[in-house]
Design goal:
Helices cover 33% and strands 19% of the residues. The protein is an alpha+beta fold and 369 residues long. The chain has a single domain, classed as 4-Layer Sandwich (Chorismate synthase, AroC fold). The strands form six sheets. The protein has a five-stranded antiparallel beta sheet. A four-stranded antiparallel beta sheet has the order 1-2-6-3. It has a two-stranded antiparallel ribbon with strand order 4-5. The longest helix has 24 residues. It is globular and about 75 Å long. The chain starts with a strand and ends with a helix. The mean pLDDT is 97. The structure holds flavin mononucleotide and ligand EPS. Flavin mononucleotide binds next to helix 11. It comes from Thermanaerothrix solaris. This reaction introduces a second double bond into the aromatic ring system. Keywords: Amino-acid biosynthesis, Aromatic amino acid biosynthesis, FAD, Flavoprotein, FMN, Lyase, NADP.
Length: 369
């Protein structure tokens, strides 16, 4: 079983993760992990914070001579913004934030943990934590790559701009998305998305959207139909929904399928010329009965608009009980492109876990055998 834990605050010294259960003998390419971190930091519409941070991963254990040993990996990413907080933080001089910000974890967290200050809540609820998750996902991708399984993504919608996705094999769409500042494989729609972000910024507003993550070359039979928590779609849904601000997911075009008759939805099975079977459609998004069916796995996720808007929301000061507006410092206008990279990391993690479960083995060699 693969598992990982993360720790760290958004403006604290660093983010940490411990990854347990990786097979021994897996070559780890640090540059490729750092490339994923760079991809997550990109994207049109992000705040000044992304100019401060330059995420690089350090591996502190579990890897010797660039190869996993089978022991837990401890990994670390520095928060460069820490120097701007360190003195006040260490001397206990940070002003309490007594007005919870709507759309954030602040209100529920303050009640739950009996705090008159939202800071301890926002520090951990922040999506800054996804930096280290992307590093974890990058390691999962390196395990999957040993079995030719690849994961990629693109952005399908920002605000009301819905991209027309060209009909091309996924790897081509991924490289076209990579060349776009909003990770949209359709350049014309990508420009419209950027204009929508500019307009939101001008109006002191924010945007959400939809991204799609896909995995190709996934063997048949990851996950299982036999028990609720072994179903691959359930595991993917949980991983995707764990990303901050993700509020909906679908496997394949699930919400469109819901309105169609069964004859137009289910992917018929045909004999191919080599005596095997093939399918010409993938409306199931690569999963039937909680198991991968050999088709690409296709997951869409809906991200709500960024909660902190330049136009103030109404709230209440929990200390004096008066109506108030929360403190505004800075905020992303749109983070859907970054979220799509985080979605890749989470899908890669779930698939690596399911693959290891299916193949077994303590070393890469055993897994391959
Ligand atoms: C990559 C990324 C960047 C984000 N940046 C911001 C931001 O700058 N400002 C903000 O208010 N919310 C931002 N969010 C969303 C909040 O973290 C999230 O809405 C909040 O923690 C509440 O969690 P929930 O939306 O899952 O309920 C970001 C989310 C992601 C995935
Ligand atoms: C730091 C990152 O994203 C942050 C996520 C975030 C939030 O509330 O989730 C708020 C912003 O941070 P700050 O509170 O410092 O302005 C974003 O910049 C990152 O993605 O690395």
């Amino acid at each position: 079983m693969l598992r990982f834990l993360t720790a760290g605050e958004s403006h604290g010294p660093c983010l940490l993760a411990i990854i347990e259960g990786l097979p021994a003998g897996l070559p780890i390419d640090l540059d490729r992990i750092n490339l994923e971190l760079l991809r997550r930091q990109g994207g049109y519409g992000r705040s000044h914070r992304m100019k401060i941070e330059q995420d690089r991963v350090e591996i502190l254990s579990g890897v010797i001579n660039k190869i996993t040993t089978g022991a837990p990996l401890a990994i670390r990413i520095e928060n460069r913004d820490w120097v701007n907080w360190k003195d006040k933080w260490e001397q206990g001089l940070l002003e309490p934030l007594t007005v919870p910000r709507p759309g954030h974890a602040d209100y529920a967290g303050m009640i739950k943990y009996r705090l008159n200050d939202a800071r301890p809540i926002l520090e951990r609820a922040s999506a800054r934590e996804t930096a280290v998750r992307v590093a974890v996902g990058a390691i999962a991708k390196q395990l999957l790559a040993q079995f030719d399984i690849m994961v990629g993504s693109y952005v399908c919608q920002i605000g009301t701009v819905v991209a027309r996705i060209p009909l091309r094999p996924y790897p081509e769409l991924w490289s076209e998305a990579e060349a776009s500042e909003v990770r949209c494989p359709n350049p014309e729609d990508g420009e419209r998305m950027k204009l929508a972000i500019d307009e939101a910024r001008r109006k002191k507003d924010t945007l959400g959207g939809v991204f799609e993550v896909q995995a190709i070359n996934v063997p048949v039979g990851l996950g299982s139909h036999v028990h609720w928590d072994r179903r691959l779609d359930a595991r993917i849904a949980m991983a995707m929904m764990s990303i901050q601000a993700i509020k909906g997911i679908e496997i394949g075009p699930a919400f469109e399928n819901a309105g169609l008759p069964g004859t137009q939805v289910h992917d018929d099975i045909f004999l191919d010329s080599k005596g095997g079977v093939t399918r010409f459609t993938n409306r199931a998004g690569g999963i039937e009965g909680g198991m991968s069916n050999g088709n690409p796995i296709v997951v869409r996720a809906a991200m709500k608009p960024i909660a902190t808007t330049g136009t103030p929301h109404q709230s209440v000061d929990v200390v004096n009980g008066r109506a108030a507006t929360p403190v505004y410092q800075r905020s992303d206008i749109c983070a859907v492109p970054a979220a799509s990279v985080i979605g890749e990391a989470m899908l890669a993690w779930v698939l690596a876990d399911a693959l290891l479960e299916k193949l077994g083995g303590d070393s890469l060699e055993e897994m391959k055998r």
